[in-house]
Amino acid sequence: MIADRSEIANQKHPRMDLLVSFDDGRLANIEMQVVYDPEEFFYRMFYYEIRLASRQVLKEKEPYSNFHPVYQIVITDFIISSEYEKLVEQFEQRNWKGQALKYAGQLMQLIFVQLPKVPLMNVKDMSLLEKWSFFLKYFEDEGKQSIIKEVIKQEEGIAMADRIIKYMSQEWIDQLNEEFEQLSINDSIRMENARIKRAKEKGREEGQKDLIKLLSQTMTAEEISKATQKPLEEIQNILK
């Protein structure tokens, strides 16, 4: 089956923040998220992961084992759930017993880095990941600058990131801030539209229930089911 152009054009095409391709063929998408919509967030990240995996196309007669792992890495400035207590939460394909899928369990991994979970500790006790997380979370925090300076002093990679940030032109910074603000506005609008849509659907559902109850005064459940084209069981549950 081949999708026509109109079908492809109507698909969601996620804009990936940072797409990384490793020398061995592995792919990673790194996302920065500051707005949390609990009803959409996990679905959206999983959708991004699927689209990331679909970038790999195996050639005819090429073994499926040539499929390389993909990593959806999401750095959040919020806690995604009270269930997840660690700075880094990593998910892969497992069964109900918690056993990883043989051979393929780690082919698609969803990894969350929750910046609010970064511990406040002595820099010498921080892991490299904790140092990067601390830098990302607090590099503009005036009260944390002594720790930030120590982190920069110890890690050349973080020092390079700090130099890049400091040497970016003000025009570039202003442009990034404008884009970031627009993204935040778009996310807020999308979330509000989703809430309005859910409210309308709930109102429509309640209106349908009221109509069915009104019809029940003169019609049987079977007749209402036929008239509304709704399953008889659903009608009966509403009339209970």
Description:
This protein has 240 residues and is α/β, with parallel strands linked by helices. α3 packs across α4 and α4 crosses α5. The longest helix is centred in the last third of the chain and has 46 residues.
- By DSSP, the count of extended strands is 5
Alpha plus pi helix count: 8
End-to-end separation: 46 Å
Structural class: alpha/beta
In short:
The chain is α/β, with parallel strands linked by helices and 240 residues long.
Protein traits:
5 strands; 47% helix; 12% strand; extended; disordered N terminus
Spell out the blueprint of helices and strands:
Elements: H1 5-9, E1 18-21, E2 27-33, H2 41-53, E3 70-76, E4 88-91, E5 108-114, H3 128-138, H4 145-154, H5 156-167, H6 170-215, H7 221-228, H8 232-239
Helix pairs in contact: 3-4, 4-5, 7-8
